[in-house]
Amino acid sequence: MTTAVTEDFPKRCGLVAIVGRPNVGKSTLMNHLLGQKISITSRKPQTTRHRVHGILTREHYQLVFADTPGIHRQHDKAINRYMNEAARSALGGVDVVCFMVDALKWTEADEYVLSLLPKDGTPVMLLINKIDQVEDKQRLLPHIEALTARFSFDEVVPVSALQAKNLETLEKLLSSKVPTGDFWFDEDQVTDRNLRFMAAEIVREKIIRQLGQEVPHQVAVEIELWEEGPGLTEIAAAILVERKGQKKILIGEAGSRIKQIGMDARKDIEALIDQKVMLKLWVKVKTGWSDSDRALRSLGYDDPVIFK
Ligand code: GDP
Ligand code: MG
Question: Does residue 46 have its Cβ closer than 6 Å to ligand 1?
Fold first, then answer.
């Protein structure tokens, strides 16, 4: 008798949206699930502006993640409208939704995201994040009970995105919920966003890390030059701000701040593209850009990344 060595496992592949109010830990979760840095994170809300697809491929399944922008209740500015639309469209046509909340904190913004969750039968999982901050796990129970009374979640998964706790369980659950089917992406691809985009996001992250509250989030980064030479990639990026005063702050005393931002960003970009980088940054004042639809379009903020 011989044993047939056949591949009886059908492959599974699907789109997973991670939603939740700004700062609950969505980007951190995706980075840890994917084991490398795809989406930028910071302590300030609104760090993630674009949809980024992270791709996790294992032998039998491929999970494609949409790291959605924050959902904002104010619709007055073009940038907020864009971010809301992107977040809403991220909820349509996905195979699984992960609704992430903070282990102990509940705000109006969470309430708003809860109201947007699909009620069309799409599986929705409740992720209770930051459990590392809760010593007595009993304290989680009333929160979980209150939430499960309000929405019929498929699963409730307590995690710590930061400490990568319980992420294997989460991955297994996700893989069981996406449909059977062929992989959409090559097995070694981790994101469908190109390197330029990721480099611009790295620069933006360093600005936010350096300046915190001093400069609001109306800062955009445009890659103006990208030249790959032998052993060195030359990159020039413009940092667009809204006011002259912001430009001064960004540059800092004798250029000290912009230098630090550039040095930190260069290191990360070198790690990203695995090559030496020469990075040039300059700051441009572009009055009112965040309130102009046309300016947003020219920066690629309107690209209607409808997936599938
Ligand atoms: P996003 O706006 O939802 O994408 O949130 P981020 O991923 O940018 O995270 C916001 C902040 O929360 C960062 O300072 C993270 O380090 C922190 N954070 C994320 N996950 C956890 C966690 O599991 N535990 C703790 N203690 N902090 C976390
Ligand atoms: Mg984020």
Answer: no
Ligand whose nearest atom lies closest to the CA of 39:
2
Query: What residues contact residue 46 under an 8 Å CB cut-off, 6+ apart?
Result: 22, 69, 70, 72, 83, 217
Domains and CATH numbers, the chain: 12-177 (3.40.50.300), 195-298 (3.30.300.20)
Among 150-154, 208-212, 236-240, name the one with the lowest average pLDDT: 208-212
Nearest C-alpha to atom 12 of ligand 1 is from which residue?
25
Cα(135) to centroid of ligand 1, in Å? 18
Give the pLDDT confidence score for residue 279 in this predicted structure.
Answer: 95
66 pLDDT band, cuts 50/70/90, is confident
pTM: 0.65
